[in-house]
């Protein structure tokens, strides 16, 4: 799984960090999400999918590989 | 269950449709939406689209190939006119009758208009993509703009209109912008933010009527009789749930479609998004006009329809962007709660704080402090006792 984050769309809601804290974090200064792991292991796929689904700004895209 | 109809093809309706498929529903799926466009996202309309920094296609909720993959029948540009909950049929304006085993009501809300003068040219509302494009076009040539209503929508539009070079007056009968949603302290900060950018903030006064000449708006007459000239007026005085098509259906229509904890409105009928009022297990009856809720409730309602629903108990979440300020709000942040700053400093334009009510933390907010606001959210989920967070400022 490849995670693609569009920081231009991100509104800093932190929802991705709440559900997948090993995959996403937020920048301190403006709260924009950052990718901790662009290629999460199988054990984190479910929470990463959940983050992409929940993101209120549609900033997270997943590509299965 | 082999026939599911979703009425309202936007954030809540689309999410419900996706959740149905994800959960293995293989029957017929029909989405009815009265807008001609494929589903698009509304929050960017009052921000990037109005400012002109995004082209409208960036607001698409999903790519076309993804929508195809849902295997649904799309009835776009079609309007539902009535529901017969006993016979389980939805009738469209053009006469087509859709039978269903399961129905998702996701018709959102409709902007309120002013009783006098709303029909004049130059008077706008902002809900749809078409509204946003028309408003932008108007703003590009307007010299003086009056925005009626200083809630989130009016405040965001005031910021963009100012950035586009218009002379803006923001009018509201309450004491400060966004005070109802965020309380007096944050409301005062918002008033100062807008004033600092050159907006004339006229609070504690309503609008008596819009004044026109030759069918075009020329100004706004305030409650005190004073006249504010305007060649463009945006009316942003809130919305009402789009439930006209449900009149006489037997569904309980109070403030929106009234549902139980599982988002059920009637046998085989669920509701989600801005239109739905439901019983939140922890917070009581709620109707939430926030983007995040459309996604969460669309999913919850779909699970209920398939028999696997659970009480819907989210922490409501909202954000708004105005000028260079980003506000994040979790839980209940309205004026009936007490607000206290616990990090940062309002004087420096960066702070985060908590809202308390009945001895418990009920909400968290960040003003240019998104990360801290998210961290404070745990006090909302844990309903931390208010005295515990009432340590001296900064503590
Ligand atoms: C300009 C703007 C900016 C916003 N900014 C933010 C923000 O910054 N943060 C935030 O959290 N939220 C924001 N919101 C709120 C957020 O967009 C809404 O909460 C969300 O769109 C609700 O989704 P929904 O699917 O419930 O309703 P809607 O998106 O309103 O969708 C309902 C759909 O149903 C259709 N419909 C209605 N009646 C019928 C009928 N009889 N037959 C067929 N179709 C019908 C409507 O045309 C519409 O397409 C904003 C909203 C607007 C308008
Ligand atoms: S959920 Fe989306 S909007 Fe929120 S911080 Fe993550 S990427 Fe940004």
Automatic annotation (TrEMBL), chain A:
SUPFAM superfamilies: 4Fe-4S ferredoxins. GO terms for molecular function: 3 iron, 4 sulfur cluster binding; electron transfer activity; iron ion binding. InterPro entries: 3Fe4S_ferredoxin (IPR001080), 4Fe4S_Fe-S-bd (IPR017896), Fe-S_cluster_ET (IPR051269). Its cofactor is [3Fe-4S] cluster. Keywords: 3Fe-4S, Electron transport, Iron, Iron-sulfur, Metal-binding, Transport. It comes from the Bacteria. PROSITE patterns: 4FE4S_FER_2 (PS51379). Residues 1-29 form the 4Fe-4S ferredoxin-type domain. The keyword Amino-acid biosynthesis does not apply. Ferredoxins are iron-sulfur proteins that transfer electrons in a wide variety of metabolic reactions. This is Ferredoxin.
TrEMBL record, chain B:
The keyword Oxidoreductase applies. Keywords: FAD, Flavoprotein, Oxidoreductase. Pfam families: Pyr_redox_2, Reductase_C. One of its GO terms (cellular component) is cytoplasm. The keyword Flavoprotein applies. Its cofactor is FAD. Residues 317-384 form the Reductase C-terminal domain. Residues 3-298 form the FAD/NAD(P)-binding domain. Signal peptide: none annotated. SUPFAM superfamilies: FAD/NAD(P)-binding domain (SSF51905). It comes from the Bacteria. GO terms for molecular function: oxidoreductase activity, acting on NAD(P)H. This is FAD-dependent oxidoreductase. It comes from Streptomyces liangshanensis.
């Amino acid at each position: 799984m490849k995670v693609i984050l569009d920081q231009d769309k991100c509104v800093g809601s932190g929802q991705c960090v709440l559900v997948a804290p090993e995959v996403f974090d937020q920048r301190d200064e403006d709260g924009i999400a950052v990718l901790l792991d662009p290629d999460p292991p199988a054990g984190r796929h479910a929470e990463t999918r959940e983050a992409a689904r929940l993101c209120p700004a549609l900033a997270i895209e997943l590509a299965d590989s | 269950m082999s026939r599911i109809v979703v009425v309202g093809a936007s954030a809540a309706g689309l999410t419900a449709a996706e959740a149905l498929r994800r959960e293995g529903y293989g029957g017929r799926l029909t989405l009815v939406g009265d807008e001609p466009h494929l589903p698009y996202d509304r929050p960017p309309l009052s921000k990037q689209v109005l400012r002109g920094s995004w082209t409208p296609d960036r607001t698409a909720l999903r790519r076309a190939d993804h929508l195809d993959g849902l295997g649904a029948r799309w009835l776009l540009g079609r309007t539902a006119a009535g529901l017969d909950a006993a016979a389980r049929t939805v009738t469209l304006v053009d006469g087509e009758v859709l039978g269903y085993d399961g129905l998702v009501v996701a018709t959102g809300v409709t902007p309120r208009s002013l009783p006098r003068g709303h029909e004049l040219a130059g008077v706008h509302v902002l809900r749809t993509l078409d509204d946003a494009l028309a408003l932008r076009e108007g703003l590009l040539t307007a010299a003086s703009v009056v925005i009626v209503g200083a809630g989130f929508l009016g405040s965001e539009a005031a910021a963009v209109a100012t950035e586009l070079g218009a002379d803006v007056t923001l009018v509201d009968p309450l004491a400060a912008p966004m005070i109802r949603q965020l309380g007096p302290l944050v409301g005062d900060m918002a008033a100062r933010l807008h004033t600092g950018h050159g907006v004339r903030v006229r609070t504690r006064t309503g609008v008596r009527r819009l004044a026109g000449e030759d069918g075009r708006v020329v100004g706004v007459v305030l409650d005190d009789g004073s006249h504010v000239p305007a060649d463009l007026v945006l009316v942003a005085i809130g919305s009402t749930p789009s439930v006209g098509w449900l009149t006489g259906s037997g569904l309980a229509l109070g403030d929106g479609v009234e549902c139980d904890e599982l988002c059920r409105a009637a046998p085989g009928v669920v509701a989600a998004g801005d239109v739905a009022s439901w019983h939140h297990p922890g917070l009581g009856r709620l109707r939430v006009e926030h983007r995040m809720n459309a996604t969460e409730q669309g999913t919850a309602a779909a699970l209920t329809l398939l028999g696997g629903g659970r009480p819907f108990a989210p922490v409501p979440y909202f954000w708004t962007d105005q000028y260079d300020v980003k506000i994040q709000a979790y839980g209940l942040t309205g004026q009936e709660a007490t607000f206290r700053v616990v990090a940062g400093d309002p004087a420096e334009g960066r702070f985060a704080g908590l809202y308390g009510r009945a001895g418990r933390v009920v909400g968290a907010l960040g003003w240019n402090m998104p990360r801290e606001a998210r961290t404070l959210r745990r006090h909302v989920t844990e309903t931390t006792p208010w005295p515990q967070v009432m340590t001296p400022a900064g503590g």
